[in-house]
From TrEMBL:
It catalyses: a 3'-end 3'-phospho-ribonucleotide-RNA + a 5'-end dephospho-ribonucleoside-RNA + GTP = a ribonucleotidyl-ribonucleotide-RNA + GMP + diphosphate; a 3'-end 2',3'-cyclophospho-ribonucleotide-RNA + a 5'-end dephospho-ribonucleoside-RNA + GTP + H2O = a ribonucleotidyl-ribonucleotide-RNA + GMP + diphosphate + H(+). Its EC number is 6.5.1.-. This is tRNA-splicing ligase RtcB. Transmembrane segments: none annotated. PANTHER family: RNA-SPLICING LIGASE RTCB HOMOLOG (PTHR11118:SF1). SUPFAM superfamilies: Hypothetical protein PH1602 (SSF103365). It comes from the Archaea. GO terms for biological process: tRNA splicing, via endonucleolytic cleavage and ligation. The active site is at H413.
Length: 490
């Protein structure tokens, strides 16, 4: 312990400022680092970063085949092995794949629906709207869907993601066009998914879950970039709906199952780990590929999950306003993953190569012209969706040129916690937080008051401070700011 504490202290002292918002942990700060660590933080945010998260950045830098830097976004905080807000890319042949670099909630992500509704349309019905959304979209720990997937349907979901939902009446073709990767990663393989993971997945397609997951009614109170906002179909005063959730129990189980195998593989391949939570295997080994193909299935499950929730959200809004989704303009702006590993082509040392990019609490932020950005947005870059807390702003940004050079096309994913859930429950009372939010005009409906306490606005960093860092670095440019009107929590 003494040695660990000395190491953490030396990391803080060794931090080298590279730019206004870039800090570096030099190679050699900890023995075995293959690359430097890079942390993207303003002067204000760096004081909130836990020393343990810095230590995790340095630990990730020791993994075999890591490229350029071990990185942490401005919303970084302590995670399982990798920091949340961590980004690391590994050589396709010489590198590794690590479940800790993705996290347990595989493809936790965010999607945004726009509408033709205004604040004045929605405010009078906010109580009814939040209540009906809560009743229609199952939320909470272990919540189950009105949909029960059969074995063959579950396989289709694992392999085809959002397309399964759209082809079964839970959306429209345009939803797929406005979704990262079309709402699917090709290459999934169901043969290494356990019976337990399948059992957990069958009743949960179309459920919100618990923790920091939410369904939020918002309105746009500020536009920063009019041209890009028009491309995204956004304007001031417009009401939007944000959905934040992931792959539920099945994703957690898939991660848990493969962590056991990967941990054994780390020993088998004699990979020196500074932290057992960084268990990994050579990228081309059977163990790593079995995990990666199963992780793809969980990622596809998550996209399908958000698509079904989108459908039920549209049904509720259409029912309350007695109009169909076309008349209400309930179009999907975009859907992004922020817990996933992908095989992508990037330029490293002047050469193009394939790398496994691990984004754990980090959003892809591809710039204008990138082939993976939907055609409708290709001349402005992909939408980057950054949720705030229950009481603070969320943001839409667009991927910018510098992202490919600075961060393997990655940006932050949220505000980032400054307090653990256990600490938050001691510090706050859910009913008090709810009452304070309602006094500010924000309706809250949750499965249990303790969830509201865990997610009190005070337990998060300022979302404005976080997005300002990626904006100033040229990773992603600010487009619009949304303020909450009503929140449904698990």
């Amino acid at each position: 312990m003494e040695e660990e504490q000395e190491g953490q202290g030396s990391i803080q002292e060794s931090l080298k400022r590279i730019d206004n918002n870039i800090w570096e942990i030099p190679i050699g700060t900890k023995p075995g680092m293959n690359v430097p660590g890079r942390i993207f933080l303003s002067d204000k945010l760096i004081h909130n970063l836990e020393p343990e998260a810095l230590d995790q950045v340095a630990n990730v830098a020791m993994l075999p085949g890591i490229q350029k830097y071990s990185m942490a976004m401005p919303d970084a905080h302590l995670g399982y092995g990798f920091p949340i807000g961590g980004v690391a890319a590994f050589d396709e042949e010489e590198g590794v794949i690590s479940p800790g670099g993705v996290g347990f909630d595989i493809n936790c992500g965010v999607r945004l629906l726009r509408s033709n509704l205004t604040v004045d349309d929605v405010r009078p019905v906010m109580k009814e709207l939040t209540e009906k959304l809560f009743q229609s979209v199952p939320a909470g720990v272990g919540s189950k869907s009105r949909l029960r997937a059969s074995d063959s349907e579950l396989d289709d979901i694992f392999l085809h993601g959002s397309r399964w939902a759209v082809e079964n009446g839970y959306g429209v073709e345009a939803d797929l066009e406005h979704c990262e990767g079309g709402g699917c990663i090709e290459g999934g393989d169901v043969s290494h998914i356990s019976a337990k993971a399948r059992k957990r997945g069958k009743p949960q397609a179309g459920t919100l879950g618990s923790g920091n997951h939410f369904l939020e009614v918002q309105y746009i109170d500020q536009i920063y970039d009019q041209e890009v906002a028009e491309k995204f179909g956004l304007e001031e005063g417009q009401v939007t709906f944000m959905i934040h959730c992931g792959s539920r129990g099945t994703g957690h189980q898939i991660c848990t199952d493969h962590l056991r195998t990967i941990s054994q593989a780390s020993k088998k391949y004699k990979i020196a780990l500074p932290d057992k939570q960084l268990a990994c295997a050579p990228a081309q080994s059977d163990e790593a590929q079995n995990y990666f193909r199963s992780m793809i299935c969980a990622a596809n499950y998550a996209w399908n999950n958000r698509q079904i929730i989108t459908h039920w959200t549209r049904e509720v809004i259409s029912d309350i306003f007695r109009s169909d989704m076309d008349e209400l303009g309930l179009d999907l702006v975009y859907d992004v993953a922020h817990n996933v590993a992908k095989l992508e082509e990037h330029t490293v040392d002047g050469k193009k190569k394939n790398v496994y990019v691990h984004r754990k609490g980090a959003t892809r932020a591809f710039p204008p012209g990138h082939k993976e950005v939907p055609q409708a947005y290709r001349d402005v870059g992909q939408p980057v969706l950054i949720p705030g807390s229950m009481g603070t702003a969320s943001f839409v940004l667009h991927g910018a040129e510098a992202s490919m050079d600075i961060s393997f096309g990655s940006a932050c994913h949220g505000a980032g916690r400054v307090m653990s859930r256990a600490h938050a429950k001691k510090e706050f009372h859910g009913e008090d937080v709810k009452s304070d939010l309602e006094k500010s005009g924000i309706m809250v409906r949750a499965a249990h008051p303790s969830v509201i306490a865990e997610e009190a606005p005070e337990v998060y960093k300022s979302s404005s401070d976080v997005v300002n860092v990626v904006h100033d670095l040229g990773i992603a440019g600010k487009v619009a700011r949304m303020m909450p009107l009503g929140v449904v929590k698990g």
